[in-house]
Structure formats: structure tokens, C-alpha cells
Specification:
The chain is mainly alpha-helical. The chain contains four helices and two strands, in the order αβαβαα.
Length: 104
């Protein structure tokens, strides 16, 4: 986390640390489950973080993850695909490499 925070600060990028809900299918994101997860303190939902964290814990590896929005299901009546984050993929990869250089 510290390497991620230092790198974001170095680049002047705003960030928020948060609790995420990991699910393997968007069809599980029902209105009731979203309310439950929000009440539980989750700010975002994604599909990979818990699996990667579990693998790292099993192997004894350090783990940190930053997320960027690829799409948004916040408004169920008007889906916002946000082009699935296409314009952010290269930037995220370069930022990830910078984080690795910062990791100590």
C-alpha cells in the first residue's frame, strides 16, 4: 500500500483507499446485495482482487492493488460502459511499473 500511495503522490494523482466487494459475475450485483455491501462499508465492486490476494497470501507474497473504473453500473437505467477503460490501460500499466520500482 505504501508503494502505491507514494507513487500516486509522486504523480499528483488523487486516490481513495477503500473496501471493495469482489464477485465473479455482474448478475450477482442485485439491488439487495448492493445495499448489503454498501452497508458493510464497500465502495466499489470488482472481479479479481480477492482471488489475487488469496493467491499471494497462500504463496507468502506481498500484495497491493489499485483499481480504475472500466465501466459503471451505478445507474441501473443508464449503463455507462466508459469504453471499458480502454483509454486507461496503458496509463495503468505504466503506473503499475512505477509502483514496482517504488516497492521496498
Amino acid at each position: 500500500m505504501k508503494a502505491i500511495e507514494r507513487t500516486f503522490a509522486k504523480h499528483g494523482l488523487p486516490f481513495t483507499t477503500c473496501t471493495t466487494w469482489t464477485t465473479d459475475g455482474f448478475f450477482r450485483e442485485t439491488k439487495d446485495m448492493v445495499k448489503y455491501r454498501l452497508d458493510e462499508g464497500c465502495s466499489v465492486v470488482e472481479m479479481e482482487c480477492a482471488a489475487l490476494a488469496a493467491c499471494c497470501r497462500k504463496r507468502g507474497a506481498n500484495f497491493g492493488q489499485f483499481l480504475f473504473t472500466a465501466d459503471s453500473l451505478a445507474n441501473v437505467h443508464e449503463y455507462d460502459s466508459r469504453d471499458f477503460g480502454t483509454d486507461s490501460h496503458e496509463k495503468a500499466l505504466l503506473l503499475g511499473l512505477d509502483i514496482l520500482k517504488e516497492f521496498k
